[in-house]
Write a structure and sequence with these properties.
Helix content is 38%, strand content 23%. It is of the alpha/beta class and 383 residues long. The model has no long low-confidence stretch (mean pLDDT 94).
């Protein structure tokens, strides 16, 4: 193995309900006994991955979903104990768990911390009651505030709050109120991203009325970004803001085109067996099929080698999201491809004002580039 992954993603797919905008691999839970069976399947999966990556020193672990907080602290602890047995969890490992404010009726946040979680990501999405209803969310603004206060009392190392904009019937005033409300809480990290209508979602087939126009969404974005900046939140990725030193290490590894192990229904991982070879693999997305796997049924995973054009596009898809940009050396070391293979396209973007050349072969997206990020990324699609 040329490079052992230092990150692990664990997918827990169950939800209380499916949000109309959600295109993640999430499934409505019908029986809470499913979580016990799923945990055992995860443990089997971790043991399979350990055969390939057993010497990996994990610096980040991210438990996403779905709604991971539907799993009990004891179940989370069991999963993390298996991770520590099969791999090595670094002493300073960032261990994140997503939670929804309305899913903690029977579970204590302190117990999740005892289980090993040190970073929480709270899916607030909005602090407006009407917006939450239109998004199909089951919690209230008060639920979010209550969960956040409990998380602060439990003294998690870092807390993120997700907030969306471009919501149905949302005005600039409503969007700014959402951002002001989250700033009042002063979490360590804020993810602030635009609602997108994805295929195979309820919103795709029944498009909500009065979605803000692109021009209005841009105005919302500009004004709310200013509010965040004026409150000491540093924008380090197109949708991510943090107080100094609280960037999400796990997501930074993704965006820098790093490698990661993945377990759970529909999870996908990435690794490099040799310097110039990058492999991706994914797990069965249907939880029933995933849970029916045994230790010896590795053939259910699909490993695919990235082509040269895949590597270029995926590198740019991720690194162009970062305020810090990328160096020519980083591109070459992560893809095994010489920078001169893409230099003409980079120069073309520079001439359009979408990317800036800085000292020491460093390239950074411009403010205009961030506005037209999709156009920049499409430049690297194979002709």
């Amino acid at each position: 193995m040329y490079s052992l992954p230092s990150s692990l993603y664990i997918h827990l797919p169950w939800c209380l309900s499916k949000c109309p905008y959600c295109d993640f691999n999430s499934h409505v839970i019908s029986d809470h006994s499913q979580t016990e069976r799923y945990v055992q399947a995860l443990i089997n999966d971790l043991k399979i991955e350990a055969k390939k990556f057993h010497q990996a020193n994990l610096k980040t672990i991210f438990i996403g979903g779905g709604t991971p907080s539907l799993f009990s602290p004891k179940e989370i602890e069991k999963i993390l104990k298996c991770v520590n047995h099969e791999f090595h969890i670094d002493n300073n490992c960032e261990i994140t768990m997503e939670l929804n404010p309305g899913s903690l009726e029977h579970h204590s946040l302190k117990d999740y911390k005892i289980a090993g979680i040190n970073r929480l990501s709270i899916g607030a999405q909005s602090f407006n009651t009407k917006s939450l209803s239109l998004l199909g969310r089951l919690h209230t603004p008060e639920d979010t505030i209550s969960v956040y206060k409990k998380a602060k009392q439990a003294k998690f190392k870092s807390i993120n709050i997700d907030v969306m904009f471009g919501l149905p019937e949302q005005s600039i005033i409503m969007a700014k109120k959402d951002v002001s409300d989250v700033i009042k809480l002063m979490p360590h990290h804020i993810s602030y991203y635009q609602l997108t209508i994805e295929p195979n979602t309820k919103f795709f087939y029944q498009r909500p009325k009065k979605i803000p126009s692109p021009d209005l969404s841009y105005k919302i974005q500009e004004e709310c970004f200013s509010l965040l900046a004026n409150s000491n939140y540093l924008r380090y990725e197109i949708s991510a803001f943090s107080l100094a030193g609280y960037e999400c290490k796990h997501n930074l590894n993704y965006w820098r085109f790093g490698d990661y192990i993945a377990v759970g229904a529909g999870a996908h991982g990435k690794y490099r067996p040799t310097r110039n070879k990058i492999m991706r693999y994914n797990k069965p997305s249907n939880p029933k099929i995933y849970m029916s796997k045994t230790k010896d049924q590795k053939e259910n995973d699909v490993d695919v080698e990235l082509t040269k054009s895949d590597k270029i596009f995926e590198f740019m898809l991720n690194n162009l999201r970062l305020e810090s940009g990328f160096t020519e050396y980083h591109f070459e070391s992560m893809t095994g491809i010489k920078f001169n293979m893409i230099e003409k396209k980079i120069i073309k973007l520079k001439e359009k004002g979408l990317i800036n050349y800085c000292s020491d072969t460093l390239w950074k997206p411009s403010a205009l580039g961030f506005r037209f990020l999709d156009d920049m990324q499409r430049e690297f699609l194979e002709d």
